[in-house]
């Protein structure tokens, strides 16, 4: 996922600013999406059909760009889908 963020810029892919190797740990500095993970949202909120469609549309746009560049994201899950405070995916 770090390589995807580093190498592929798209409005629906989290922006990575830098990464550091600290000891044996990889620290990643990335865009802060204050809305949190989709997992947290669906755990505490009932989403409307329109909201679900908007999330799906945004995720599919990002995947289409990645697939066009030969990248397959093999770990799509609600924990990996992040939102801004205003609901941008």
From TrEMBL:
Keywords: ATP-binding, Kinase, Nucleotide-binding, Transferase. Its EC number is 2.7.11.1. This is non-specific serine/threonine protein kinase. It comes from Emberiza fucata. The gene is Pak4. GO terms for molecular function: ATP binding; protein serine/threonine kinase activity. It is an enzyme of class 2 (transferase). The keyword DNA damage does not apply. Residues 1-89 form the Protein kinase domain. InterPro entries: Kinase-like_dom_sf, PAK3-like, Prot_kinase_dom.
């Amino acid at each position: 996922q770090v390589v995807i963020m580093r190498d592929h810029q798209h409005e629906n892919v989290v922006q990575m600013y830098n990464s550091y190797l600290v000891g044996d740990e990889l620290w990643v500095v990335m865009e802060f999406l204050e809305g949190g993970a989709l997992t947290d949202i669906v755990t505490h909120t009932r989403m409307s059909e329109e909201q679900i469609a908007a999330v799906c549309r945004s995720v599919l746009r990002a995947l289409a760009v990645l697939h066009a560049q030969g990248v397959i994201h093999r770990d799509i899950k609600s924990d990996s889908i992040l939102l801004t405070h205003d609901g941008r995916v």
